[in-house]
Automatic annotation (TrEMBL):
It comes from Pontibacter amylolyticus. InterPro entries: ABM_dom (IPR007138), Dimeric_a/b-barrel (IPR011008). Gene3D superfamilies: 3.30.70.100. This is ABM domain-containing protein. Residues 2-92 form the ABM domain. It comes from the Bacteria.
Amino acid sequence: MYIAMSQFEVANGMAADVKEAFVNRPHLVDHEKGFLGMKVFTPQENENEFWVMTTWTDEISYREWYKEHMKASHEGIPKGLKLVPGSLKVRFFDLVSD
């Protein structure tokens, strides 16, 4: 299993809009080759911070999706959204045990 984990923090009071966008997302990625699932988290101590975890069967499937479809999948981002500078981080993981 391959995991892509994104982290970011909303800077301009639009956290509720971001949450709504995730809840009502169009599910474009759901039927992509190798896609297993997506979970979105916010830490209890900071509702403006988001962690987005997508799971894939393998890195190649993720890379193909990213290259071909990532832009379309992000069209639902609320207009006017601003992030805390430097808060966007993307990390990649291999599953060791579950």
